[in-house]
């Protein structure tokens, strides 16, 4: 019997395909009432991890549980967890309503639930249309409706915004926020659409090249990244020299000819430029966003071998588990998707 908590726990999860370490010692939790983003470049191991969580792939080591149990021990899993890993499982000649009724019968929910979830995902008017004529965005909505049939505590979605237009993305964002926060459900979203995910998630797990780069709150990740000031000087070289002579060394040129300065205020930079007689045409404070942080954390994925990996920024193991040793903390993540 599962514990009914709605909690996802991934603990020291690993998967090898022959000589390839697809996922290594991956650990994180997803709590009810929040939306967690699962981010990484293509080939980072996201889909492999989700398949292990959903019982579709057997781990080499470690475990992934939902409500304290592996997926295979949940009894009627569709009443606990709904998932969308792809949106191609539709018979092209079957209507949206009939597609959902087939799945409803399989998991033991009444036929009327099909119309309820079609309304939830905005496909009520398309209930009698054949799925073969649906656009990519409509198929994505139908896949989500299928996942919602059992009114699950937990939603696991792989690239859920694929094929959605801007209006659909806004709808999905609002729907998942409400589902997680107002209904106290658990939502895990895998995506590479970083700007969209940043407006949706509370927690984030970032993986790349066999290593967990970060696991923790989005706010804490933002705080860990220094903001910078972008300066447009008349003489970039002279400004860099003046700043360095005054102990400001976190200085770098940008491709558009400006100078990026970290760890200093606009006022301090302006005073030093004036003292050195350097004209400044503009300054802009640039606060870290998720996209830039993502690229900073995953930039080694395709740039070199394992010896060039940056260190992970891991916030600790799931509650109730002993901490992993330093050797383990350097090898979380996965290179294959």
UniProtKB/TrEMBL annotation:
SMART domains from the UniProt entry: AAA
Protein keywords: ATP-binding, Nucleotide-binding, Transport
Any single Pfam family the record assigns to this protein: ABC_tran
Protein species of origin: Amycolatopsis pretoriensis
Protein name: ABC-2 type transport system ATP-binding protein
One Gene Ontology molecular-function label: ATP hydrolysis activity
Biased composition (Pro residues): 315-325
Domain ABC transporter: 8-234
Superkingdom classification of source: Bacteria
Composition skew (Low complexity), residue ranges: 326-337
PANTHER family: ABC TRANSPORTER, ATP-BINDING PROTEIN
Similarity field: Belongs to the ABC transporter superfamily.
Region called Disordered, residue ranges: 300-337
Matches recorded under CDD domains: ABC_BcrA_bacitracin_resist (cd03268)
